[in-house]
Each structure stands twice: as C-alpha cells, then as structure tokens.
Design brief:
InterPro entries: AAA+_ATPase, ABC_transporter-like_ATP-bd, ABC_Transporter_VariousFunc, P-loop_NTPase. The protein is α/β, with parallel strands linked by helices. The chain has 8 helices and 13 strands. Bound molecules: adenosine-5'-triphosphate.
C-alpha cells in the first residue's frame, strides 16, 4: 500500500524546546486520519512540516513519495486560523484558486459556495469565523489535492455546521479518494469520520494505527487492586486507576483477555484517546479534552 506521509525520527525544536521529538510514522494513503493530542503536543507543527511551511530540525519526511513542497497543488492545507484574504471577496478567492492550481475544479467550488449560502460578492473579512472556515475548506478541496491537511477545521463551527462540514468532507473523500489528516480536540467528531488515528503527547507519538484495529486490541479491565507491572501476558498497560480495593486498567493486548479475575469491557475511541492523553491531562498543564456528549 502506498503511503501518504512517512516520517523518520522527525524532530522540530524551537531553541531548546521540542515541538516534535523523534516522530516516526507511516500513514497509508486513502485514509481519513485523526491527529489528536493535548494543547502544545505538536500537531500543528507536524502538519506545517508536512505541507512544507516549516523545516524540521532533524529527521526525514516524505509526502506523497517526495519532499514536502510549500504551496504544492497536490496538497491542500487549511491552517488553524483558517486564513483568508480579508479584502478579497468569496469570488476572488475562487478566481485566485483557479489561477494557482492546474487541477482546479471550478464547478465543485461554485457548487459548495452556493450550497453553503456564501455570497460571492462578500469580502472574506466580513464573513463569520465558521463561514471563513468553510471558504478555506472549499478552496482547499477545489484544488483536487491528493492529500488534504486540516488543522482543527471545525473549531469555529456551530454543531450543525460542524456536522454538515464533516458530512461534506466524508462525501468528498468517498468520491475523490483523497487522503486526509485532520487535527481536532473533538474526538466524538473524529470517531464519526476517521479510520486511522495518530495520538501525539508532549511532542511524541504515543499511538498510531487503524481505528478498527486499535479498538479491537484495547480493553478496560476491572478487578481487585493489583500492581500493573504484574499483569504480564504481553499486555501493555496504557492507563491505570486505583481505589483502595479495585484497579481499573486500560490495556493493549492483541490476544483476548479471558481471565475470571477481571471484568473486561471494550472501549470507544474517546476513552482510548483519553487513556493515552491522561498522563498529560493529570499533569494539569494541558486543557482537558473536550467531551462532546
Ligand atoms: N513559532 C514558535 N516559536 C516557539 N515555539 C513554538 C512555535 N510554534 C509552536 N511552538 C511550541 O511548539 C509546541 C508545539 O506547538 P503546536 O502548535 O505544534 O501544538 P498543537 O498540538 O498544535 O497545539 P494546539 O492543540 O494548542 O493547537 C508548543 O510547545 C508550542 O509552544
């Protein structure tokens, strides 16, 4: 299977402070990838390196089989602050997109603008935050990119607009086969659309893989209080919580856990992500993941 993004020992430092540390990933093409982690984990840094806006301090990165290229027509990028040209109208943005991108799909762009109810004559600086995000996404997908990078694309959207945005994204991906890497704190949203997950915590990759496989191999086990180090059996303890008499562990194990000493339950994506992030959250320095339900 071809890869959309491959990194090897990718590292980015600002002075002595690491933003990404020794990040090794192989993200297969054709997936919708959720990039999750606490504030400051390195998600934007990774996306900016992949789209060629930032150069790494060390390590290697390959994007669609080559070096990252800033402004590549093959890569659509919507940055966290959904930059638009405030003095340009919506129609100007489409004209600019058409001018800069050889594979520009003008019919797709116009149809989206129409469906979203954006006035082509409206200056982008007068749009709401959510409308700006929709315009930025429209420009990114009308490029017909092979890889779409979205940095918290739904953060500014109301719940209905968020749902419509994700629905539109899924329809576009199903029709185009574009690979997508999307960062978000809203894991319930990611659960609806992503089939591949990357969790970054404090500049490092904590876990990565296909969502289905991750959910099948992570379990919550509850039983009499125990020392997680004694669990054994090839089971990796991701997170442990104890009362005086009881332990609740999130463990990774490819073999089924068939032990009468424990109650074993499956976990959802949000619980899985929180288990990997909990060390950071318990440190009290990071915003606790927003729970949407
Ligand atoms: N231009 C910069 N100069 C110095 N430090 C930076 C710069 N950009 C990012 N950092 C630092 O790099 C680390 C990673 O930041 P990054 O923006 O990649 O995190 P993030 O996971 O996207 O966070 P968030 O969820 O808050 O958007 C943070 O510690 C941040 O302070």
């Amino acid at each position: 299977m071809t890869s959309a993004v491959v990194t090897e020992g990718l590292t980015k430092r600002y002075g002595r402070r690491p933003a990404l540390s020794d990040c090794t990933l192989d993200i297969p093409a054709g997936h919708v990838v959720g990039l999750v982690g606490p504030n400051g984990a390195g998600k934007s840094t990774l996306l900016q390196i992949v789209c060629g806006l930032l150069r790494p301090t060390a390590g290697r990165v390959t994007v669609l089989g080559g070096d990252p290229v800033s402004g590549s027509p093959r890569v659509g990028f919507v940055a966290q602050d959904t930059p638009v040209y405030a003095g340009f109208t919506v129609a100007d943005h489409l004209r600019l997109g058409a001018h800069l991108n050889p594979a520009w799909d003008d019919a797709l762009a116009r149809e989206r603008v129409d469906r979203l109810g954006l006035d082509p004559a409206q200056k982008a600086g007068k749009l709401s935050g959510g409308q700006r995000a929709q315009l930025a996404l429209t420009v990114a997908i009308a490029k017909r990119p092979d890889l779409l990078l979205l940095d918290e694309p739904v953060a500014a959207l109301d719940p209905l607009a968020r749902r419509e945005f994700l629905q539109g994204l899924m329809e576009y991906v199903a029709e185009s086969g574009t690979s997508v890497v999307m960062s978000s704190h809203l894991v319930a949203d990611l659960e609806r659309v992503c089939d591949y997950l990357v969790v970054l915590v404090r500049s490092r990759v904590r876990v990565t893989g296909e969502v289905e496989e991750l959910l099948a191999t992570h379990h919550r086990i509850t039983g009499a209080r125990l020392d997680p180090a004694t669990l054994g059996g090839g089971r990796q303890v991701v997170h442990a919580r104890h009362t005086d008499v009881q332990s609740t562990l999130v463990v990774r194990s490819s073999a089924p856990i068939d032990d009468p000493a424990f109650t074993v339950d499956g976990i959802d994506l949000e619980d899985l992500v929180l288990a990997y992030m909990s060390e950071a959250a318990e440190g009290g320095r990071d915003r606790v993941l927003e729970k949407q339900r």
